[in-house]
């Protein structure tokens, strides 16, 4: 009876918070899912909804249609609002604050009438290599192919018909926010994936803007760059209100009322930093999935141009360096699957948790060699810029005297998975002497306690923390940024430390000195052996079955 009463009391308490507007809504457009998360003033998720989608090729470029954007948003919102009504008996007529986030970069260009000029070009497109090279050289600042300015400049270089008509361009989050509020603004973190941001002024790098405008092919246009860009805003800045038209667009039922104050729209890198409490200088996070990136908040600008490091900012406008690798778990998952098939063939099938846990723990058993016993693995299913590979091939290799056993094999698999992202991280820590106090790891590979943390701590020679809240994801992080509008008199890093994560459970693995030496030995063999990968690309057809 007591448990029932406590549950009823909790429902009543949350219902009162919903009526009082003590809630924040975060909606994030990921590459495969749009997710809406409603939190209360204790940062607990009280309702959620989502919508699955996928990019498609349009005229040879990866895109999502405008119809998909709005259908997906409305569906995710409706599922969340339905969750509220079912769980708490309340229709969602208003929300305390709202914030939108999305996958960064890409290109959404509009004319004076607000009409989309060409289909949305996502971050996945690599048709901007010429622009990437020319702008990186011009600015002496890395401009990756996926950045919005690379898309715009490539369109200029290609003499695309629409270029002269551009009146405004933005990211996906900026587009949704604009349509719901009428404000052409962008969170500074998302903005930093459009064009370089000055970490002192938290606005566009003015010298780079001048350099860009002075390019002959740009000077010939009827616009200047500053005319086209949204206004960057730091976290905690009110970024407009939900208009009547915007409310109807978000909730066509008419239940949600206009007037809700919105947070600056952010990118998925920024919401990931918030979700892992990694916005303080000298902290960072490692997001591990099909691909992997490691991000560190910097104390200063880098001394030189490094193509291996992307420079973005936190939602507060502090500069962060990112090492991004295209390849991570695909090869590892394939090998684990093979062991699973072997278990089935023996008549003793095991569930995925047991399978991964058993194999992962073998990698840190007492009898393993710290350097993986001379085994080498290349996990490149796709091309990898960090390793100089335009294509990928999956290769496992060993010398005749290598110590081949299960522990060493799994250790080589895990070592190799973290090796590509280490290339860019080493540029920061060894070439630029970036100081890192701690990194937070998040992603499925950290589900097995201790193992991936211990391996990553050795790879980066840095303590690795895994937090219980890391699984909440970017939509939750955006909801927290929306809540921050009530607390903007406190610095973002202090707000996260003192309010959001004050009681968050976590575990930390410090680097083991022998593991660090072992990983460095493996990594030296990994890099020296890269010609093996080039030979495999030449010898093995991409489509071979």
From TrEMBL:
Family statement: Belongs to the FGGY kinase family.
InterPro entries according to UniProt: ATPase_NBD, FGGY_C, FGGY_Carb_Kinase, FGGY_N
Residue stretches making up the Carbohydrate kinase FGGY N-terminal domain: 25-214
Protein name: ATPase
Molecular function in Gene Ontology: kinase activity
Pfam families to which the protein is assigned, alphabetical: FGGY_C (PF02782), FGGY_N (PF00370)
Source taxon at top rank: Bacteria
One biological process term in Gene Ontology: D-xylose metabolic process
Keywords on record: Carbohydrate metabolism, Kinase, Transferase, Xylose metabolism
Record domain Carbohydrate kinase FGGY C-terminal: where: 285-484
């Amino acid at each position: 009876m007591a448990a029932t009463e406590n549950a009823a009391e909790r429902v009543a308490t949350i219902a009162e918070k919903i009526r009082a507007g003590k809630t924040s809504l975060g909606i994030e457009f990921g590459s495969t899912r749009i997710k809406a998360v409603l939190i209360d003033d204790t940062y607990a998720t009280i309702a959620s909804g989502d919508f699955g989608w996928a990019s498609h090729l349009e005229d040879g470029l990866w895109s999502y249609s405008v119809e998909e954007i709005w259908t997906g948003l409305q569906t995710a919102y409706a599922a969340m609002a339905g969750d509220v009504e079912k769980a708490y008996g309340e229709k969602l007529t208003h929300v305390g604050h709202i914030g939108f986030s999305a996958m960064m970069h890409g290109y959404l260009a509009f004319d004076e009438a607000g009409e989309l000029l060409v289909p949305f070009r996502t971050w996945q497109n690599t048709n901007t290599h010429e622009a990437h090279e020319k702008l990186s050289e011009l600015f002496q600042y890395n401009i990756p192919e996926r950045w919005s300015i690379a898309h715009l400049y490539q369109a200029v270089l290609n003499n695309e018909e629409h270029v002269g008509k551009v009146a405004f361009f933005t990211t996906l989050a900026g587009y949704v926010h604009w349509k719901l509020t009428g404000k052409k603004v962008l969170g500074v973190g998302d903005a930093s994936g459009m064009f370089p941001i000055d970490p002192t002024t938290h606005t566009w790098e003015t010298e780079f803007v001048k350099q860009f405008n002075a390019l002959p092919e740009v000077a010939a246009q009827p616009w200047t760059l500053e005319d086209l860009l949204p206004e960057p805003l730091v976290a905690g800045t009110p970024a407009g209100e939900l208009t009547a038209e915007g409310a109807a667009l978000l909730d066509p039922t008419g239940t949600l009322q206009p007037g809700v104050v919105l947070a600056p729209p952010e990118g998925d890198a920024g919401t990931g930093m918030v979700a892992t409490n990694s916005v303080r200088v000298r902290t960072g996070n490692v997001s591990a999935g099909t691909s992997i990136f490691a991000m560190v908040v910097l104390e200063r600008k880098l001394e030189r141009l490094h193509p291996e490091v992307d420079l973005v900012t936190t939602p507060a406008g502090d500069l962060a360096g990112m090492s991004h690798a295209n390849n991570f778990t695909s090869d590892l998952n394939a090998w684990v699957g093979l062991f699973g098939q072997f278990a089935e063939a023996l008549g003793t099938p095991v569930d995925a948790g047991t399978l991964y846990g058993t194999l992962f723990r073998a990698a840190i058993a007492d009898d393993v060699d710290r350097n993986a016993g001379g085994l080498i693995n290349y996990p490149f299913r796709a091309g990898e810029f960090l390793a100089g590979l335009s294509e990928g091939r999956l290769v496992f290799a060993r010398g005749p005297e290598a110590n081949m056993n299960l522990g060493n094999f799994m250790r080589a698999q895990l070592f190799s998975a973290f090796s590509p992202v280490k290339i860019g991280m080493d540029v920061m820590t060894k070439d630029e002497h970036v100081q890192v106090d701690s990194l937070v790891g998040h992603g499925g590979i950290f589900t097995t306690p201790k193992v991936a943390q211990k391996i990553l701590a050795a790879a980066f020679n840095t303590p690795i923390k895994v937090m219980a809240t890391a699984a909440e994801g970017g939509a939750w992080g955006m909801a927290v940024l929306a809540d921050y509008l009530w607390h903007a008199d406190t610095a973002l890093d202090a707000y996260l430390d003192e309010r959001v994560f004050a009681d968050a459970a976590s575990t930390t693995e410090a680097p083991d000195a022998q593991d660090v030496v072992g990983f460095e030995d493996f990594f030296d063999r990994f890099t020296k052996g890269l010609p093996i990968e080039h030979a495999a690309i030449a010898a093995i057809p991409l489509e071979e079955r």
